[in-house]
Queue: 2 jobs
Job 1
Amino acid sequence: MGRLIEGQWSTQWYDPDDDGRFVRPSTVFRDRIEAGGRFAPEAGRYHLYVSLACPWAHRTLIARVLKGLDDVISVTVVDPYMGDDGWTFQDDDPDPIHGHTFLREVYTSADSAYTGRVTVPALWDRQEGTIVNNESREILRMLDHGFAGLATRDLDLCPPDLHDEVERILDAIYEPINNGVYRAGFAETQQAYDEAVGEVFEALDQWDAHLADHRYLCGSRMTEADICLFTTLLRFDPVYVSHFKCNVRRIADYPHLSGYLRDIYQTPGVAATCSIAHIKEHYFRSHPFINPTRIVPVGPALDLDAPHGRA
Ligand SMILES: N[C@@H](CCC(=O)N[C@@H](CS)C(=O)NCC(=O)O)C(=O)O
């Protein structure tokens, strides 16, 4: 793990705030794919660098498959283990564009003086030779709306009539849930941890109640908000409960969130983007300050194919 400082690699972890809270830095590449713009939608032009372990990258993999963009946007999956060199390419899934060994080299190929973390997802443009964007929520929206005419599946994950509600829910789940589990797991003081875990479970309790009478977060249609909640819920019982100490309740203990998790998992195309083995291998092996033995637990037993009862 580490970061680039003016193009030079440094094995530094995140800097907490004065009270030991985890602080997630903002991402740097924030351009957009749009018809008529510098980054126009074109088949074969863009490439996604992802990890199957990462909940943020997983959002973009799900959108790619649900929109039928598999043949339009190519993908490389990095090795689950993130050590001192950061994300590394796998021998059986090498970097097809540059032939690099490390993801950080993709970042310095985009900007030789880049300063920041080397994160997934990152959306690469073959034509301009740069990273278009490395912020998952924005890449998700680009895959959803930026490739009209190229997407082979007719489905809108943020339709105009639900736009404001999708945005509201994306905002509402981000800090307490999506980022909340990280704020708990990477807290460096008891107070920072207590604060984060309290927020995680208050929010989960609230959304479980909401899902008692809504199939999806925004009602009867699956949206970007569901994708963003799903990728955190999928990792919750196998990883966040023990590794990030989010152990007040499991998702399996929630009457509605548990079925909702299986409902999204069983949506055609989604299961193929999920690898519990990859997820566990990444978290338990890559954070020795949390798990010094790097032993990957065997459980928990999960049956994501069990009936979800929510149709
Ligand atoms: N805000 C970013 C966060 C991406 C992110 O933090 N990804 C993690 C993997 S789960 C990563 O690549 N971390 C490497 C590091 O921070 O060194 C997004 O939503 O895309």
Job 2
Amino acid sequence: MKPSIFGYQAPTTLDEAISLLAGDPDAAVLAGGQTLLPAMNFRAANPSLLVDIQHIDGLRSIVVGAEAIVVKAMVRHREFELDADVRRVNPLIAEVMQHVAHIPIRNRGTVVGSLCHADPSAEMPLLLVLLGGSVIVQGLSGSREIAAEKFFQSFLTTARSHDEIVVEARFPLLPPMAGWAFDEVTRRHGDYAVVGVGCVLSLDESSRASGVRLAACGIADRPVRLKEAETVLNGTALGTSDLDAAVAASMAAVTQPDDINVSASYRRRALGTLIRRMVAKAAQRAQMAEVAS
Ligand SMILES: Cc1cc2nc3c(=O)[nH]c(=O)nc-3n(C[C@H](O)[C@H](O)[C@H](O)COP(=O)(O)OP(=O)(O)OC[C@H]3O[C@@H](n4cnc5c(N)ncnc54)[C@H](O)[C@@H]3O)c2cc1C
């Protein structure tokens, strides 16, 4: 199919882009186009106007700061994945990025575009929630910061207002000596996750877990922090019974119903398996970091 008739504007300033969005309730931001353009071709999206943000200055940088990595709106997935400084301060990011689509799509698609699309099975929203990051949005009334857990509101829906552009995302650095892990169950490599789980944790002097963070995608209408499981695991030696308890505490987080791909009970089993594996892998990496220090 071909898209409906639409207008196209390529502003060179953020103010111009915001005014264009504010002037047309059916206008849409165009970033890498890897989701929006296929949706338009299927007529699942019918914007009257595309506001292409790729010619706006200042939207292409990745800056590693003291507390977070700041990724501007036009940074492509592949740039984020391959950035040497990002790999050094937060190797979890590259581990997650390998699962986002295929390289040609990662060459064009943007990190922030993926966050704005807010697919509950996508990896980047999970990563932002897992790390406790945020986005900065800018609109007619100025800019504001929105925490990841507030930004993702439901299926393909965020807290961004129509006239706002997400200008950057902030991914916190990993705590020193932390262990980390991400993996997913998927039908084919490069597909969206059926279920994905990420984990970050530290170990104290007696090898007990602290600062456990767990998040999952593909189990609800948005990425979910598994806070009950985190509480169960903090302070434990991460033994089999601790992991059993964490898995049991996570099952209620699966609210995605059966669909054409898998049943809800399959998602629960996949979630349990991934939690066990990701916690074990993160703990192993935390131990290795301790040995190497
Ligand atoms: C075959 C295929 C497989 C894929 N597999 C995966 C996968 O496994 N995991 C995954 O996470 N993704 C996957 N994707 C999607 C890919 O990651 C996209 O790049 C990403 O979702 C959107 O990024 P984009 O820059 O292309 O955004 P666009 O397509 O340009 O925009 C997506 C949406 O976000 C809005 N938007 C974009 N940028 C902004 C902004 N700065 N401010 C406000 N609104 C904005 C747009 O208006 C639109 O609604 C896949 C895509 C394809 C085609």
